[in-house]
Amino acid sequence: MFNTMSHSSSQSKYTRRYHPRHPLAQYLISQIETMQLRAPDIIKAMGYPLGHTIPACERLRHVLCNRYLGLDSSYMDKYFTADAFLAKLFVVLELPYEPFVEDIAQIKYQLAHLPNDSPKYSLRAGVDFEFDSAQWMSCDATKNHQLIVEQDRVKVDKVERKLAKASGA
């Protein structure tokens, strides 16, 4: 991976909202500072429509502050994929994209091989349904629904109502 200078503590009006969590983001932010570009200027140059400026500026901030540069698809819109957004940002900032292809590929590799640390929950309950009468349900509900218990899951199926009047009795 490449090295860049550390994030300066005195940010300007152009970069004060960006808190990079990746060295490549710091490099991009340094270029924004050098070019003295505001987020709306960058977004406009990227080709976003005027009515989409605020969400696009938020996406820019997210990408520059995300440790995966937004390549984890954590912020998407209908205008750019994660890869296309980053590539277009390089173009707008007049930076060469090719030298960083390896770094971007490394981020994608990390994302593809992240352990799934999300917690997994399982709930098992032993429930005994014994009713002497169906008076706990409304009369209409007992005629319209049938409770079916199958191997640890409860499912309510709609059944046809068979009334004595309809059968002619």
The largest β sheet comes out as:
2 strands, antiparallel
Strand order of the largest sheet: 1-2
Strand/helix succession: HHHHHHEE
Strand content: 5-15%
Please tell me how large the radius of gyration is. Answer: 29 Å
Low-confidence stretches: 1-9, 146-165
**What percent of residues adopt helix (DSSP H or I)?**
25-40%
Molecular structure report:
With 169 residues, this protein is mostly helical. The chain is 37% helix and 7% strand. It contains six helices and two strands. A two-stranded antiparallel sheet has the order 1-2. Strand 1 and strand 2 form a beta hairpin. The longest helix has 13 residues. The radius of gyration is 29 Å and the shape is elongated. The protein starts with 22 loop residues before the first helix and ends in an 11-residue tail after the last strand. 17% of the residues are buried.
Structural key phrases:
169 residues; elongated; two-stranded antiparallel sheet; mainly alpha; 2 strands
How is the topology of this model organized?
Layout: H1 23-35, H2 39-46, H3 53-65, H4 82-92, H5 101-112, H6 139-144, E1 145-150, E2 153-158
Antiparallel strand pairs: 1-2
Helix pairs in contact: 2-3
Could you give a short description of this structure?
The protein has helices spanning 23-35, 39-46, 53-65, 82-92, 101-112, 139-144; strands at 145-150, 153-158. It is mainly alpha-helical and 169 residues long.
